[in-house]
Every structure is written in C-alpha cells, then in structure tokens.
Amino acid sequence: MLCSGEELGINDDYYDGAEEYGLLMLADDVPVGEDIKKVVGLDDYIFDISITANRPDCQSVLGIAREVAAVLKKPLKMPATDSIQKTTSAEPITVEVQAQDLCPRYMGHFVQNVKAVKTPDWMRRRLAVCGIRSISPIVDITNFVLLEIGQPMHAFDADKLAGRKIVVRRATEGEKITTLDEKEFTLSSDNLVICDAEKPVALAGVMGGADSGISDTTKNVYFESAKFARDSVRKTSRALGQISDSSLRFEKGVDAYSNSLGLARALHLIDELGCGEVTCVSADECAISLENRVMTVSVEKINALLGIKVPDEVIVDVLDRLCFKPVLEGDNLTVEVPAYRDDIDGYPDIAEEVIRMYGYDNLVPTFLEKASVTGGGLDEMQKKEMHVKTRLATQGYLEAYNYSFYSPKDFDLMKLPEDAQERNAVRILNPISEELSVMRTFLSPSMLANAVRNIRRGNDEGREFEVANVYIPQGDDQPLEKKRLALGVWGAKCDFFDMKGAVETLADTFHLTFSYERADKPFLHPGVSANVMMGKQVVGYFGELDPAIAGGLGLDKKVYLGELDLEILLQKGDDVIAYTNLPKFADMQRDLALLVDEKYTCAEVEEVLNHSCKYVTKVKMFDLYRGKNLPEGKKSMAFTLTFSVPNTAGKGFSAEDLDGFVKKILNNLKFKLGVELR
Question: Fewer CB atoms inside 10 Å of the end CB: C or N, the chain?
Fold first, then answer.
C-alpha cells in the first residue's frame, strides 16, 4: 500500500519527509516488510492520565514516574541536570521582583552563542506524540522541560531586553502588550507582567511577548523559571481569554522545587544538544523558604480517620517510598514533606497518602460511634418529582442535566428586552469562562442549546426535559432558588400539540385543570405559543421557537420550548390515585355546533361548558370551521359534551333531562360570551 505522510497522520517530527507532497519516501536502509509503525515511530505507548487539581506535582512525566516507582517499589531515575558553565564577558542581566506576593521566586540564566542546530529526532518525536510541533532547539527545550519536569519556562531573546534588566511587577492601568500569537491586550493592575527596562515583555505565567520572542536570528537567550501565584495567573488568563499549557499548570500550582530542577534540566539539554553555551550569569530572587517542612502526626489519628488499623511497618514503608523520610517513635510519626508536595497540610493528608498506597480495598465499612439507622426514603415532594419524571419518560422524553449557569449572551439570543426580569441574574465572581458566568433565571436557553447541539450532530428528532433550580437575586442575601421543569421537542414531525400533550399529561397526573392563553414571550413564535394558567395564575408557557432565532442559529428543524413552575404544580397537585365504583348508568353525549366570535378562544368556551352544568364530565372540541355561510367575525366550533349520572341517583337521565341541561348551557353561553347555537 502506498501512502503519504498525511495519510499516515504524521509530520516531519515523526519522520523526515512526511510533510512533502506525494508518497512518503522511506530511507534505503529500511528492511522490506518492516512494520510501518515501527519505522515512523507510531509503535510507542501513550498514557493519557487524568490528574486531579490537588496534585499539581503529577502534571509531568517525572511526577507520574515518582508515583509509579512508589507503587512498583522501584528506584526513581532522575533526569540528568548537570551542565558546563562558562565565564562570559557579557554584561549581567539584573532581576528585580516588585510583586513578591505574586512571584515568590524568579530564576533566570543567560545562555550565549545560540546555534541554529536541528533538534534531535528523539526530542522532536516525544514532543510530537504529546501534540507539540518542533519549532527550534531553544523553544523545544522549554516545551520538553514543561512536559518532563512540569516547570513552565520561557526563553527571552536577551539582546532584545532593554537595559539588560528584568522587572516583575503589576501592570499599570491601560498598559498594552502584544503576545507571541500577535494579539494585543490592554492590561490592568490585576495582571502580573515581566518587563525589561522599558516595557512589558511577557504576561507572567501565561505567554511571552512578541517583542522579545526567540527567532532565527537569536544569538543570546535568557531562560526564565519562576513560581507565580496560581490565582493571579488564573484571573489574568480568564480575563484576557488567553489559555496556554503554562497557564493551566500555574493555575493548579508550580512548586519552588521545580523552578530550580526545571532550569537545571534546560541548561543540561543546551549542553547535550550543543545549541548554545551555558554561562555563569544567573539570578535567583526568592522570598520563600526552600527548606522541606517537617511535620509530626499521630498514628492513632491516622488510623482513626481511616477507620482501620494500618500496621506501623506498612505506614513507614509507604511514606518512605513516597520520599517522606518517616521516623516513628511510639505514636509520633515525624515526616519531612518533599518540596514538590505543597498539597500536604496535616495528618488527614498523610492518612490519604497511606491508604491510597495500602489499598482502598482494605477499608472496612463501619458505623460512626454515635450513628443510628434511620428509615430514609423520599419525602412527599421528592416522590411527586419522581412521578413527574416517570410520566414524562413514558411520553418519550429523556432527562437532561445542564450547568446551573450560562452566558449573558443567552439573554440577547432569546431577544429579551433590557428591562426583562430574567436579565436580573446572579453573577459568578470567578467563572470558569464568560460562557458560564451567570446563574440561570430560566431554563429555556439551556434547553435550546441542547436542541441546537443535537440537531447539528445529526440527531434530527428528540424530546428532553430537565428538572432544575433557577436562582433569583435577593440583594445581598442568598438568591432565591425555585424549582422549574423545562421541556424541549425538536424534529420535522413534531408540532405544538406534542408539547401540549405532555403538559396535559402532567395535569391529569396531578388532578389539575389547566387553561391556556396566548403568550407574548419574545423568543417564542407569537402565533404558536401559550401561557399555562391555573385559574388566573400563570404557571408556565410553551410554544415554537421564534423563526427569526431559529434562522439565526441555522436550524432547519422546528424547535418547541416549554417551562413550568414545578413548585406550584407539586404543592397544589395531588398524584394519589383514587378509585370509584363503576357507574350504574351509561354516560350520555350531546353534540353542539356553536357560532362564536373570533375573539374568544377554545379554552374560554370550554370553561363555560364545563361550569354550566354539574353533570358535564368531559368536553371535547371535534370541529372548527371558518369560511362561507358564516357571519363576518364568526367561527363555528363543534363540541361533544359527556353527561355522567351520579351513582347516588336512582335512575339514568332521560331525553328531557338532557334537553334541560343543554338549554341551561346555551343560556350561559349566550349570557357570558354571546355564543349561539349554529
């Protein structure tokens, strides 16, 4: 089989010539019949490991190697960090840290006579399998150290640093910087910047500046290895919308131990690759202690927390493998916390280290000392909520779970006016992103997003519901939480009455009576939407998505949205099933064709029909006519009325009885709505 590099999914970092147009030409010494994966370097094993935020020390190959060595009880092989440092006549580069609270340690080292050599194949390939393209030896080394040691580094073109000076400070209001990706940002005092004697040259912990970046003409380099406050990097990254591999690591935490190890490793690689000369010009501005913390904890407390007794020798062995240098004297366990373990802060953390190595399967479930067994179960409101979900599931709806927040742009998408009540939302102080920065005041935007996402991915038909809280601001107090039910239906075959059927199902389930009136929601079709009423109270709405919004989203399927105040439904509804005896007498029916003014809705006519005679148990419209032979402004509506005889009655209804009932009903229709028999 003949393939190009593109067809194999490789580039020049895997195999030279892979990016050339046409077939991939293999070297002459490649044996015929050799597995192509071995030839081009695709036979490697890639471990994709999820690291929790509390273990920043594991965000590197070395960090994972430490854990593996402890588990397998094998010695850890540290990467080489030695380098030959030469004297230089170059003027020193001075470092001044003005914001030590945001940058407790800043290290730098000067490398001269940088050479434009080719990055070796082994490094290019290792970067490639981690999704990083080779750029130049200096940049490749910083990326390699980031992955191997977990220390984000930056390399400045030393000849571009004005005044041969590095200043770490807060930005001034309105100060500007252009980053390596050629984006310009206006800064504030919340942003930490790295400056030369004149201007900012990097966003601390996020990205370097374009003015001091490495280029093909770079001859001298100044390596930066620092520790930045995680909240400072996170706020800058989120505020400016700049997220990088470095910022992601600094946000979780980079320890001071990695600063010196990472810099030493980078200098060693400079020597190994022969791409420059390591000088003795360096700086280390440190405002924190570099001594390992010593901690004494109680073995009894560790065992009490775990609920089991872990043998003393096991505790010592585990902590020794994790490089804690434990010393046990009676009940007192003294440990030296490794410099890279900033997450260790007391005996509960030590207990966690012990049990994760000893094995969680050794834990034995036990009651707390004063625990007692309770009946448990769901309360009445929770049972009703489950009943709602079950009934909707039988209607073909799938339950959705969405975030409790969305973007302020969703208010504009839903065409809400500026004074709309829904816009009064709780703002998140530290949002994940601007797209998730306000608490939900209504659920329809989330349901619309679900429908759009499904349609764009080829799920052309669907029904979903969501039971969730909305959050209504109350000044300085905690927001008011109210439970809502959202409905979403989309597809070529669905219509308004599909959603109305679901609403009616809930009404029947909880023995409620709903009526409907035209809705005026700006995000719903003005002629295909309705408010759900309980008496005079609006308890929800549903209808078709406004065609203008649908067109703006590029939807070619109709979408219907609905939302109900679930708390009101559950409080006023009763889902208890009541049984009655079968009727002694058969129900009787009469059909009425009525001449009705156009201004009256079906719900208004049905309300009069239902309340004009106590024996009417069911009203159903079966025909609606507009057209010839009708007075102007009139329509014909035909209903079937079902009359039920009470079980207490001694006999059934006669024809005369029904005539009397119908006469009374017609009189009420004439008096209240001006409706006449057609």
Answer: N
